[in-house]
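Researcher: For the annotation table, I need structure tokens for Plastid division protein PDV1-like. Please keep the output clean. Sequence:
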Amino acid sequence: MKWNMQMEEIEAILEKIWDLHDKLSDAIHSISRSHFLTSIKTLTNSSHNQNDTVVAETTPDGNGFVFVKDFRPQCEEVDDAVHEAKSLNAIRTALENLEDQLEFFHGLVYC
């Protein structure tokens, strides 16, 4: 009886994690799309030379990012949105790690 209750609790927690993961992914996608459209609008309105404007780099953890030289956020709101997306991504990654651990323990209980 005790194991059945714990199994139901784990499954309920996993459901909540999946819901939160989906909501975070939607928010990150919305912020990214908004930032992309703003950057494209700014680049097309700029009269600067478009040659060699993009530089790709890789972070130590293997994630890549792109700098667009001619694009600078027009206001702090855009920059804040990028930081918010990065924060949401960190939270989503933590949820994925928690999900992996719970699924591991969930599998141990069934064995």
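Researcher: And a one-line annotation?
Model: The chain is about 70% helix and 10% strand.
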